[in-house]
Amino acid sequence: MTRIIVQPTDILGVVDVQPTFMPGGELPVAGGHEVVPVINRLLAGPFAHAFATQDWHPPSHASFAATHGREPYETVVLHYGEQVLWPEHGVQNTPGAALHPDLDTARIAVTVRKGFHPGIDSYSAFFENDRRTPTGLDGYLRARGFRRIFFAGLATDFCVAWSAEDAVRLGYEVCVIEDACRAINLPTTDGRTTLDDARKRLHAAGVGFVRAESLVAR
Ligand code: VGL
Ligand code: ZN
Fold first, then answer.
1. Using CA positions, which residue lies closest to atom 2 of ligand 1?
2. Nearest-angstrom CA–CA distance, 48 and 109
3. Of the N and C termini of the chain, which has fewer Cβ atoms inside 10 Å?
4. Beta strands 75-78 and 3-5: pairing type?
């Protein structure tokens, strides 16, 4: 099915397209680099407007396993709830934390940095992981009149999923461009994965799943 992009009110959300989340980076997502050309095609064609997010942690961030003397991918409870502990990644001003150098940023009007408060993580483009403290992106999007957000980037089951859920909660129409995303895909209970769980939550929230080639400009 073809979907018409309504250029004045549709925006592409480019989530955490940073070398730190790609093979060779600190928190590598399998195939993470493959989203770059797909996103560049979306930015050159169907979408006139885009925003980006950038994971931007201080050293010794609360989401880093080493900060707690723990191993990566263990889960802990912090003051705002459960937190997966990650290898050190997305450290401010390191090469891995830059937007990927091949990303076409011409149509990216705003980049929201997140996760810079030392004691709290931020997966979502809209709120810190307490799901209350805003990043300010909602104000920007509202002021510019955007009503529908198409998400692309990394990782499907964490920052893309949390952003998409919050966007629904804030009243946007939301789609995830599946082939413009890649997942971390951690095992959860009874043979499921974080990607299975994220998909289920997003479907329940009314998020649409689309493929890049189905999107065309009017
Ligand atoms: C992300 C884990 C930690 C993401 C960021 O971009 O999905 N995942 N920080
Ligand atoms: Zn992070």
1. 158
2. 10
3. N
4. unpaired
6 C-alpha to center of ligand 2: Å? 32
Q: What is the mean pLDDT of the chain?
A: 97
Give the tokens for residue 21: 């989340």
Q: Which CATH architecture has domain 4-57+96-217?
A: 3-Layer(aba) Sandwich (3.40)
Confidence (pTM): 0.97
The alpha carbon of 58 and the centre of ligand 1 are apart by a number of angstroms equal to: 14
Token pair of 44, please? Answer: 């050159």
Name the closest-CA residue to atom 1, ligand 1. 159
- Binding-site residues, ligand 1, Cβ < 6 A: 16, 21, 55, 86, 123, 154-155, 158-159
Across the range 151-169, mean pLDDT stands at: 98
Name the residue at shortest CA distance from atom 4 of ligand 1.
159
